[in-house]
Design goal:
There is one protein chain. With about 475 residues, this protein is an alpha+beta fold. It folds into three domains: about 1-230, Rhopdopsin 7-helix transmembrane proteins (Up-down Bundle), CATH 1.20.1070; about 255-320; about 330-480, Heat Shock Protein 90 (2-Layer Sandwich), CATH 3.30.565. It is built from 14 helices and seven strands. The strands form two sheets. A five-stranded mixed sheet has the order 2-4-5-7-6. A two-stranded antiparallel ribbon has the order 1-3. A hairpin with a 2-residue loop joins strand 4 and strand 5. It starts with a helix and ends in a 6-residue tail after the last strand. Mean pLDDT is about 80; it is low at about 435-440.
Length: about 475
C-alpha cells in the first residue's frame, strides 16, 4: 500500500506549497509582521512535513520526527494567527508552546526508537486534536466581534478536521491489526488521513481569504481617512481665508478704539442728535400722559435707552483721553512680512494681483507695530474695495506694496507705499485739508485716512495721498528712521 501514501504525501505537499507561495504578497509587504509570517509559515510547514514523510523511507526514518514537528507547527499556527487577529497578547503563549513543541520532538524520537506506533499516533494526533479545538475556540471569539463568511468557514472546517482526527485517534487505538509505522497503515486509516489532510487544507485557504478581506477593509479605511483629511484640510483653508478676511475688516475698526481723537469726534457728532431725541421723547411723554399706559411705558424705555447711549459715549471719551500713546522700536520690513500672507490671500480671493516687498533689514522706527499693521490692512482693504467696484475695467486689477529708504526733511525716512490701478482718489479728497471725515464709498465712514494721518503724526511721520499718472491711487507712509547701536 505504499503507493497510497506516496500519492497522499506528494499531492498534499504540493498543494500546501502552492498555498505558501500564494501568501508571498502578504509576506513581501512586511516580512517581520507576525500575520505575514504565520500566513506563509502555516502552509509551508504543512508542505515540509508531507515531503519529509515522503522521503523518510528512502533516506532516514528519523525525518519522520521532524515531519511530525512541522505538522504540529502547521496546526498550532492557526490558533496563533487567529489570536493575532483578535489583538490578543500571545508572547507568553509562544514561549510555552515552543517548550512543549521541542519536548514533543524529543519524546517522539524516543518512541520512534523504543516505543510503539500507537504511542506515537496518540502523541501526535492528540496535539492535532487539542490545537484544532483551541483554534475553534479562538475563531469563535473572533467571529463574535467580526462577522465574516471566511471566519465562519474557518471555524466550521477546523471543527470538522478536529473531529476526523479524533475518530482517527480512536480507530488507531482500537485497531487490532499489527501496525508498526506510518507506512503500514491499512487503507481505512489512510482514508482518515486523506480526509484530515483535505479539511486541514481548507484552513489556510480561509485564512488567506480573510487576510485579503482585512487588507481590503484597511485600504478602504485608509482611503476614507484620506478623504476626511482632505475635507478637513479644505475646511481649515477656508477658515484661514475667513480669518484673514475678518482681520482685514477688523483692521478698519480696531484702530479707532485706541484713539481719543476719533472718540471725541464720535461724541461730538452723536451728542447733538441724542440730546434732540431726548427732548423729543420727553415732549411726547407730556403730550400723551393721558393716553394708553402701554405707550407711556414704551416712551419711558426709549428715554432710558437714549440716556444709556449718551452715558456710554461720554464714558468712552473720558477713558480714551486718559490713555497715552505707546511707542515701540521695531523693523518695518519684518512687520510687513508678517502680514503679507494675509494681504496676499485676501487680494487673491477677490481675483486681484498683489505684490509685496522682499524682506530687507535696517528699517528701524519708533512707532506702534500693531497700529501700523492696522493702517496697512485698512489701506489694502480700501484698494480692494475700489478695484472690486470697478471690476469692468480692462486691465487686470493689482495692488502693490513697496518699501524703501529716502531722505525727507534732511532726515532718513522709511517710505511705505500702497498703490493700485483703480479709479484713484477724487480731486476734492486730494485738496481736502482733512478737517472732517471723508469717504469715497457709499457705505464708508471716512475715518481710515484721517486716523492714519493722526497716527503717523504721533510718530513724527506723514501720510500723503496722490494719484498715479498712469491711473490709480497711491498712499505714502513716511516714518523717520532711528539710529541703532552697532
Amino acid at each position: 500500500m505504499n503507493y497510497y501514501n506516496e500519492i497522499f504525501f506528494v499531492l498534499f505537499g504540493f498543494i500546501f506549497l502552492i498555498l505558501a507561495i500564494s501568501s508571498a504578497p502578504y509576506y513581501r509587504q512586511d516580512a517581520i509582521e507576525r500575520q505575514s509570517l504565520l500566513l506563509a509559515g502555516i502552509p509551508l510547514a504543512g508542505a515540509v512535513s508531507y515531503f519529509l514523510f515522503l522521503i523518510a523511507p528512502l533516506t532516514w526514518h528519523g525525518l519522520i520526527t521532524f515531519g511530525n514537528l512541522f505538522l504540529i507547527a502547521s496546526t498550532v499556527g492557526g490558533g496563533l494567527l487567529v489570536r493575532h487577529w483578535r489583538n490578543a497578547s500571545s508572547q507568553k503563549l509562544w514561549t510555552v508552546l515552543t517548550v512543549l513543541w521541542i519536548s514533543t520532538g524529543i519524546v517522539f524520537e524516543y518512541l520512534r526508537v523504543s516505543g510503539t506506533f500507537e504511542q506515537r499516533v496518540v502523541l501526535i494526533v492528540s496535539w492535532i486534536v487539542l490545537s484544532g479545538a483551541w483554534t475553534c475556540v479562538e475563531t469563535y471569539r473572533l467571529y463574535k466581534t467580526q462577522k465574516s463568511f471566511y471566519i465562519l468557514g474557518l471555524m466550521v472546517f477546523t471543527a470538522c478536521w478536529t473531529v476526523i482526527n479524533f475518530i482517527r485517534l480512536i480507530s488507531v487505538v482500537l485497531s487490532e491489526l499489527p501496525i508498526f509505522d506510518l507506512y503500514q497503515e491499512p487503507l481505512q486509516l489512510i482514508l482518515f488521513r486523506f480526509m484530515s489532510g483535505a479539511l486541514h487544507l481548507f484552513c489556510p485557504i480561509f485564512m488567506l481569504a480573510h487576510a485579503s478581506e482585512r487588507l481590503n477593509t484597511q485600504s478602504l479605511a485608509i482611503q476614507k481617512e484620506k478623504e476626511t483629511t482632505h475635507l478637513a484640510n479644505a475646511e481649515l483653508n477656508q477658515l484661514v481665508r475667513e480669518r484673514d478676511h475678518m482681520l482685514m475688516i477688523n483692521s478698519r475698526f480696531s484702530t479707532v478704539g485706541s484713539l481719543a481723537m476719533f472718540n471725541s469726534a464720535i461724541v461730538h457728532e452723536v451728542s447733538q442728535p441724542l440730546t434732540a431725541l431726548t427732548l423729543t421723547l420727553h415732549e411726547m411723554q407730556y403730550l400723551v400722559k393721558d393716553a394708553d399706559p402701554s405707550l407711556q411705558v414704551a416712551l419711558s424705555e426709549s428715554v432710558n435707552l437714549v440716556e444709556k447711549i449718551s452715558q456710554m459715549t461720554h464714558s468712552l471719551r473720558r477713558l480714551m483721553l486718559e490713555q497715552k500713546p505707546e511707542h515701540q522700536t521695531f523693523d518695518v520690513s519684518a512687520c510687513i512680512q508678517e502680514i503679507l500672507p494675509i494681504l496676499n490671500n485676501e487680494s487673491r480671493s477677490r481675483a486681484i494681483d498683489f505684490t509685496g516687498p522682499k524682506p530687507v533689514q535696517g528699517f528701524i522706527v519708533s512707532a506702534h507695530k500693531v497700529l501700523l499693521e492696522r493702517i496697512l490692512f485698512n489701506l489694502v482693504a480700501n484698494a480692494i474695495d475700489a478695484l472690486s467696484a470697478h471690476a469692468d475695467q480692462q486691465d487686470q486689477p493689482r495692488i502693490e506694496l513697496t518699501l524703501q529708504q529716502q531722505m525727507r526733511h534732511a532726515q532718513p525716512h522709511v517710505l511705505v507705499t500702497v498703490s493700485d490701478n483703480g479709479p484713484g482718489f477724487a480731486e476734492y479728497l486730494l485738496a481736502e485739508e482733512w478737517m472732517h471725515f471723508q469717504s469715497t464709498k457709499d457705505t464708508g465712514m471716512g475715518v481710515g485716512l484721517i486716523l492714519g494721518r493722526y497716527i503717523l503724526s504721533t510718530w513724527q511721520g506723514e501720510l500723503l495721498l496722490t494719484n498715479l499718472p498712469s491711473g490709480g491711487a497711491r498712499v505714502q507712509l513716511w516714518m523717520p528712521l532711528i539710529k541703532t547701536s552697532v
